[in-house]
Structure formats: structure tokens, C-alpha cells
Amino acid sequence: MSARLSVEQTPLAGLLVIRRNVLSDHRGYLERLFCSSELAPFLDGRKIAQINHTLTRNAGAARGMHFQRQAFQETKIVSCLRGEVFDVAVDLRKGSATFGKWYGTVLSADNHSSLHIPEGFAHGFQTLCSDCEMLYFHTASYSAEAEGAVNMLDPAFGIEWPMAITERSTRDESHPFITSAFEGLEI
Predict the structure, then answer these.
(1) Sign for the pseudo-dihedral over CA of 37, 41, 46, 51
(2) pTM (2 d.p.)
(3) Rounded to whole angstroms, how far apart are CA atoms 79 and 174?
(4) Among 123, 136, 138, 175, which one carries the catalytic annotation?
(5) Is 116 a known active-site residue?
(6) Cα distance between residue 64 and residue 80, in whole Å
(7) pLDDT digit string (tens) for 136-187?
(8) Which of 56, 82, 127, 162 is the most exposed place for a label (fewest CB within 10 A)?
(9) Rounded to whole angstroms, how far apart are CA atoms 82 and 148?
(10) 77: helix, strand or coil
(11) Has 29 been annotated as catalytic?
């Protein structure tokens, strides 16, 4: 793609791993977290509307699996700026050949990688160490009315979390398991 960013396809169409190539010398390094012109082909003409930053204090803690419904569906670019997380996306796109499949990868401050998560995917992560900081670029502003989620422990997905989940929010624990009636998200 460029000297600053490279993009790798995953087994789930549209879900990408973005590698940030660092420029370094004896003082430290510079890395590009976002470039609208380089990432334009993956944003389908949409602009970044919101940037969020999270801190998760304890190793083993998990957040997710969240998504936004139409008209607030969003593409996300998720990065770990401090620590290390196992970042997961589940394909919930109606009619997708990989509907219900998940992909997980380690994002860390050291590997300089991001996950590009298109519309129609649920997203979550588990911290692999303490004090993990995440940065999210969203193509739509958050809407509480459009928020949806599925349970990260749903056996229908079979996500293989790398360690025992030590804590989740009450809200994340209450997210539903999908049923056979769930046909997916319209895109």
C-alpha cells in the first residue's frame, strides 16, 4: 500500500489487518495511525466521524461484542496503543458466506497493527496484560438507540479466548446468545 501502511486480508471478506510501518532512529519512532487518502479504498467514501480511547485495567478483562444497526452502522479501525489485547470480530452480515464466523488477532503497542472492521461485524476484545489502552476510529457517531450486541461466550460463535475471562461489565454479561431466528444485519 505505502511505505507507512500495509494491509492484509483475513479469511472474512472486508475484515483487514493494517500494519503500521514505523520509522525509527536512536530517538524513538514515528508511526502513522490513520491516513484518509491511503485508507480511502477501505472506507467506502465515508469519513471518520468519531475517535474513542479506552483503558482496561486488568488482564483477562473482556469487552464486547458490540455493533451499530442501520443508519448508524460503522466501519471501525481499532488499535492498541499500550499493552496487548486479543481483538475479535464476528461476521453478522445477512447473507454473508462467512456469517457467524469470527477472526481474532493480537493487537499490541509492540506489533503496530490495527484491525479494520467493516459494517455488519460485532467487535470485542480481551486484555492479555494490565493497563491496555485502545484507540478506535469510527465512520459514524455512536447512537444508543442503534446499539446492538451479542454475547462473547455464545457457543454459536465458539470464540477461542486465549485466557479465562476475569471480568466483564454487567451490560456485556447480559448480551443475548443468537437464536436460529437471527438472520443477520442488513448492510
Answers:
(1) negative
(2) 0.96
(3) 26
(4) 136
(5) no
(6) 15
(7) 999 999 999 999 999 999 999 999 999 999 999 999 999 999 999 999 999 9
(8) 162
(9) 27
(10) strand
(11) no
